[in-house]
Design a protein that fits this description.
With 329 residues, this protein is mostly helical. Helices cover 74% and strands 2% of the residues. It has 16 helices and 2 strands. The radius of gyration is 27 Å and the shape is globular. The two termini are 53 Å apart.
Length: 329
Amino acid sequence: MSALIAKRNIGFSRKSSFKKNWATNLFIILMLIYPVSHFLLMWIAVNINSILLVFQKSDSSGHLYWVMQDWDGSAGGFFSSLFDNFVSLFHSFSDQTSNTIYRNSLAYFVVSCLVTLPIAIVFSYFVFKKIWGSTFYKVIFFVPSIFPLFILCMIYSYSLSSGGLVSGIAGWFGLDIDKWLADLTIDNTTRQWFVWVFCVWSGIGYDVILLTAGMSRIPREIIESCKMDGVNPFREFFRIIIPLCWPTITTLFVFGMMSVFSIAFQPFFLTGSATDNYTKTIGEYIYFTSKGGNYTDVATLGLFCSLIGAPIICATRWGMNKAFANVGF
């Protein structure tokens, strides 16, 4: 009898607690509606639809139908019909244009992970050590992260155009580089470098912000101890700063790897052409091809990139986490 009364009292206390905090609970529910709806609609639904598109094709009128409708009933034709879009994708690998797009995309791994990130680590250390002008450098690195991508591309293009900022500065020293700047986006090789340099310039600021925040978490006692022990800045940088900031470096390295698939609008904004295969990337190809209604091919390419890229990125992250012990402070 006493146990039954106790259960009733517990149930009553829970109901009264809910009624008492109904405003708080309502606020939490309202705040969760948008992010949960956004996740369900823009991630779950979109990805499920993309996977379903892989197993569909479009007819001459543009209507989608399941690829299994082309199956002739033979045992050998089952998988060839089911994965017909993948077969077409694999055949496209021998195409010169496709190979150029894939090479362009892989180049951004080098640009993001092996060029931008090391430069950002060095500059972040300078800012962390509060060298002369460190506040000015912090502002310079942070400013590109404020502007939208399109505005940033315009500033960069106008600065390097004939008669722009760079041309004006060169003119102060008696150098005439207008002809070289005018041909900068015409030659195939220089046009690629034009985009790569922009990605380095615009990407350093974001990396510096996160790396500086990671370095600022290092206890000052550790830095003071290094000074007392006579540790020079070079050794401090490699033996103290980098190991303690390794989780942040790992995260930025993983983000840099994902740029192989995410770089899309930078080449388009800087070259002004959606058909420029010398700078086109996987992301740009998927965006402009899907605008033409060719959803099945780009969905197949996107799923293939996910199946290939996700294990590599996860394995890289696991390996980098093993390089240094995660120290909490």
